[in-house]
């Protein structure tokens, strides 16, 4: 009898802990009950398991902890797997008062390695480079390979350039990775001191740009002088889509999305996908990733964003919203206090 009672109790607790719906903007605890720390994050689906990588801001702003990784089979219940790249895993310049932001991970089938890219910066935000780290396991530990700026291009450098782009190449800040169906990977990042987005094809190992870099062939400037951040690309029916935010620090702003037949452009800006109250601030959040929703519908996606809390960055929240791509490349992003997979069966 006693055994039966404890089994029932355990089952009850377990059932209680299981989340069955997304609650955008609410505290999102992991399976240990602690708030998830994976800001500016991205998802990797590998062998039926989702991995969520992001900035661990437990100690507030800057790289004081490192890149955390969580695993899940249902995208709702996340188990903390620890730090995939602890702060000490990157050069000193990028720890404590430096930053290690917007980490994203791809799996390279050829090399069987997990490759992480991130935006690394020093305190004055002048190094603005891409960091690359590699691991044999999805959960890490990732081994830091180095940092650089993938593309050098004369866009008409400012005369006094504290980021030294003439010598070092265009700055590398808000970023994302995208793996295409043909196995080729791309980095999207805010370059030219956040004025222009770059899309750059990666080499076969995914550890650097494809060489030689040739504009129009291996990389391109897109949304030129538009000042976009938070790039979140995805593909649907052979077309490429890119969500992005404006550039206003931690303050939320209006989102926009663009569409292209070719990943290197031309990209057509379609405008703000958000509708309804607080659309003008993307529901007080900033894009970080777009994930194809699990299930049969190929037009169903999840928009992932950060609701930053600049006064207390560790209490920044996650805004995940469902959307579908409608005919004519139309996307409508609507707020929901709570949603589950049934939204896609309507
Ligand atoms: C906006 C970026 O999107 C964030 O990742 C972060 O770098 C903040 N700026 C810092 O102000």
TrEMBL record:
Residues making up the signal peptide according to the UniProt record: none
Name the GO terms of the biological process aspect: carbohydrate metabolic process
Q: What are the record keywords, sorted?
A: Glycosidase, Hydrolase
Q: Where, by residue number, does the polypeptide cross the bilayer? A: none
Gene3D superfamilies the UniProt entry points to: Glycosyl hydrolase domain, family 43
Q: Which GO terms describe its molecular function?
A: hydrolase activity, hydrolyzing O-glycosyl compounds
Protein family according to the UniProt entry: Belongs to the glycosyl hydrolase 43 family.
Q: What PANTHER family would the database entry show?
A: GLYCOSYL HYDROLASE 43 FAMILY MEMBER (PTHR22925), GLYCOSYL HYDROLASE FAMILY PROTEIN 43 (PTHR22925:SF3)
Entry protein name = Family 43 glycosylhydrolase
């Amino acid at each position: 009898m006693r055994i039966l009672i404890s089994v029932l109790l355990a089952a009850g607790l377990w059932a209680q802990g299981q989340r069955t719906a997304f609650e955008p903007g609410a505290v999102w605890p992991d399976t240990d009950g602690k708030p998830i720390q994976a800001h500016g994050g991205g998802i990797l689906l590998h062998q039926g398991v989702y991995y969520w990588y992001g900035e661990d801001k437990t100690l507030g702003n800057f790289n004081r902890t490192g890149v955390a990784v969580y695993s899940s089979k249902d995208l709702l219940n996340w188990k903390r797997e620890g730090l995939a790249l602890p702060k000490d895993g990157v050069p000193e310049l990028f720890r404590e008062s430096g930053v290690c932001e917007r980490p994203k991970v791809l799996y390279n089938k050829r090399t069987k390695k997990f490759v992480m890219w991130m935006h690394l910066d020093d305190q004055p935000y002048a190094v603005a480079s891409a960091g690359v780290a590699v691991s044999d396991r999805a959960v890490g530990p990732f081994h830091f390979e180095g940092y650089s700026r993938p593309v050098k291009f004369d866009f008409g450098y400012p005369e006094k350039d504290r980021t030294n782009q003439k010598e070092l190449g265009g700055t590398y800040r808000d970023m994302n990775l995208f793996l295409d169906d043909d196995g080729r990977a791309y980095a999207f990042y805010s370059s030219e001191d956040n004025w222009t987005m770059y899309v750059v094809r990666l080499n076969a190992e995914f550890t650097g740009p494809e060489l030689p870099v040739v504009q129009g062939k291996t990389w391109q400037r897109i949304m030129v002088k538009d000042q976009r951040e938070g790039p979140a690309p995805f593909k649907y029916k052979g077309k490429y889509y890119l969500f992005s935010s404006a550039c206003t620090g931690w303050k939320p702003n209006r989102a926009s999305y663009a569409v292209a037949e070719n990943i290197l452009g031309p990209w057509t800006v379609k405008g703000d996908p958000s509708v309804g109250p607080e659309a003008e601030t993307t529901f007080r959040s900033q894009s970080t990733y777009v994930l194809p929703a699990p299930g049969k519908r190929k037009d169903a996606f999840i928009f992932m964003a950060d609701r930053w809390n600049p006064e207390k960055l560790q209490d920044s929240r996650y805004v995940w919203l469902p959307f579908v791509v409608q005919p004519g490349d139309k996307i409508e992003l609507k707020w929901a206090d709570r949603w589950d997979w049934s939204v896609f069966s309507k």
